[in-house]
Amino acid sequence: MNTTKLRIAIQKSGRLNEDSLQILKDAGISIDNGKEQLKASARNFPLEVMYLRNGDIPQYLRDGVVDVAILGENVLIEKGEDIITGDKLGFSKCRVSIAVPKSMRYNRIEDLQGKRIATSYPNTVNAFLAEKGITAELHIINGSVEIAPNIGLADAICDIVSSGSTLFKNNLKEVEVILKSEAILAISPGINEERKAILEKLQFRLRSVLNART
Ligand code: PRP
Ligand code: MG
């Protein structure tokens, strides 16, 4: 009996978690959903699900510890240039944007010259600023980035914007959209042939779900 399973990583908690499980469910794959467990198996498809932290997933794909993942394109752009990108999945749409306090006068990108920017996406911000010829001081923080200007840690922030409510609550305004992102299927560069064959079956099912949703 062939017992090879495709190992898929999905976000442990956070915005992608629910929609990721839902798309698998819509694809007819039922997973014993013990969220306390970090690993679960599908009952009716050769799939093993691992619940991981978003930011760790590119490294797991690179190491070949997981074969595929559902995660935000923005995470791959930040730290997964070598990871293969598969289909876009149509959910978790967001922007990665720069925002400044509402009270700050902002007309153009040059207004960020020499400023302190708090972000969890340093590579993305650096690439964007370098292309515009702007030098700024980055402060890397992992969460609640929007609080930084209010506590005097930074003059501006760069983070994910979805509904815009976090910016609004923190008296910030979005001034530059660096990129747009949504959930995608990401594929390990080291996936073997046997697992690739399972992946093709999974992709076929996901595409049917996506077609039915539009
Ligand atoms: C994310 C992101 C933004 C916010 C954007 O934070 O970092 O802060 O959501 O969404 P909105 O535009 O709909 O308000 P999250 O709440 O996931 O927490 P974290 O920053 O602590 O990771
Ligand atoms: Mg946040």
UniProtKB/TrEMBL annotation:
Cofactor annotation: Mg(2+)
Class of enzymatic activity (EC top level): transferase
Boundaries of every ATP phosphoribosyltransferase catalytic domain copy: 53-207
Activity control mechanisms: Feedback inhibited by histidine.
Pathway note: Amino-acid biosynthesis; L-histidine biosynthesis; L-histidine from 5-phospho-alpha-D-ribose 1-diphosphate: step 1/9
Any one of the GO CC terms: cytoplasm
Keyword annotations of the record: Amino-acid biosynthesis, ATP-binding, Cytoplasm, Glycosyltransferase, Histidine biosynthesis, Magnesium, Metal-binding, Nucleotide-binding, Transferase
Record-listed E.C. numbers: 2.4.2.17
GO molecular function: ATP binding; ATP phosphoribosyltransferase activity; magnesium ion binding
Catalysis performed (reactions): 1-(5-phospho-beta-D-ribosyl)-ATP + diphosphate = 5-phospho-alpha-D-ribose 1-diphosphate + ATP
Cellular localisation: Cytoplasm
Family: Belongs to the ATP phosphoribosyltransferase family. Long subfamily.
GO biological processes: L-histidine biosynthetic process
Function comment: Catalyzes the condensation of ATP and 5-phosphoribose 1-diphosphate to form N'-(5'-phosphoribosyl)-ATP (PR-ATP). Has a crucial role in the pathway because the rate of histidine biosynthesis seems to be controlled primarily by regulation of HisG enzymatic activity.
Location, primary (coarse class): cytoplasm
Protein name according to UniProt: ATP phosphoribosyltransferase
Positions spanned in the full protein: 1 to 214 of 287
